[in-house]
Protein: Phospho-2-dehydro-3-deoxyheptonate aldolase
Organism: Crossiella cryophila
Amino acid sequence: MLTENPILTRPRESAEDLFTALDEALRKPARQQPDWADHPARQRTRQDLALLPPLTLPAEIDLLRTRLAAVARGEAFLLQGGDCAETFADTTEAHIRANVSTLVQLEVALTRCTGWPVVTVGRLAGQYAKPRSQPQDADGLPSYRGDLVNAIEPDPLLRQPDPHRMMLAYQHSNVTLNLVRALCGPGNFPPARLRALFAGFAEGSAAGERFAGLLAELDRGLRYTDRSWSRELFSSHEALVLDYERALVRLDPDHPGGPRLYSGATHFPWIGERTRQWDGAHLAFAAQLANPIGLKIGPGATALEVSEYLHRLDPHKEPGRVTLITRMGSDRVRALLPPIVREVEASGHRVVWQCDPMHANGEVTECGRKTRQFDRIVDEVQGFFEVHRLLGTHPGGLHLELTGEDVTECLGGAAEITPSGLARRYETACDPRLNGDQALELTLLVAEMLRG
Ligand code: PEP
Ligand code: MN
């Protein structure tokens, strides 16, 4: 049976209507915005950004839409990861290379061990704004809200929100994406480098022996991979600061279904747990964009609430239009996820189900460091797989905070990082990340889960 293409059969809207609807959306209340409404540089920076080229283009974003539609149909797997908060100081070749290398390594491990096509998305080139639970930090200073807003240094002046930082965030995103695109181009990421990374893990990690079979398979496959291969990697970040996000919206006048608005700030924006108010600006803003949209769903969300979000964000029921990024906690995922999955599946929306096993499994050590236990992270992923297996739905993806650098921010893993061991290299500007070895160990466990 021929089905109608929802993109081509939708009513055409004029460019003017689209921008009117966008501005109306942005008049709704928005949480977590920097306190800079009256700053003299605000309007000027927004105008300057609006004149600059977009960082991402409609055709790339449409390609990601087709990739995510395949995930939603149960034909592919979504891997998303990167820093909790990117920083301007870490816009270095070493850091970007380390994170991209790790993402490619995880993608190759997943796809080659399971046969599943993998769609890879970095938390990068724009992940510079953070929502905060408290307006002030433990020292009574205004909270650090990401390099796009203020500085991490504990100095009252530098903690004042500064709209100029939006321009810096754009520039840092631009140079990051430039290197990422180059690294993914033909020949710039030789399989030999990947083989060396896997060999390093096989020999250096205590988990090397446990996964010796899979690692040997990977090594054999890569030996015969053409050195001029290229990779496909999309960008994503939390669409939090609406002055920045609005300034980078661009019109695609040539879309076959009529003009469309795209975020030119990223391929894949997501809405965070703290800004998903049903009547708020973030949801209304995302609804106006043609980009695929991620939505974080925490333990407080009800099934009814989630289906109302989908009604707003996915009125045409396009497979993969929305990725529901569930973050329930290892102790609650098995109880809280099933009613949501049942309600959504019954509603006819074809979403990507993605597990974020990081954000509801945080804890604070006696020394006051934010951390997460590797075993709880694994347990939430395990619970996510169990629920989807039980309900016959596709456990479509994984959303991780990670870096390829050898940091010590999460506890456990094969290296058995202990609370006192966290001090060795605890560098995150916000939440604790898995290091390269921990991320690969988790991914190999997930590959086993996917193999069933
Ligand atoms: C994040 O992804 O860094 C984040 C803040 O997540 P959440 O909105 O799920 O708390
Ligand atoms: Mn985080």
About this structure: The two ends are 33 Å apart (CA to CA). Residues 84, 359, 401, 430-431 surround manganese (II) ion (ligand 2) (CB under 6 Å). Residues 45 and 164 are 6 Å apart (CA to CA).
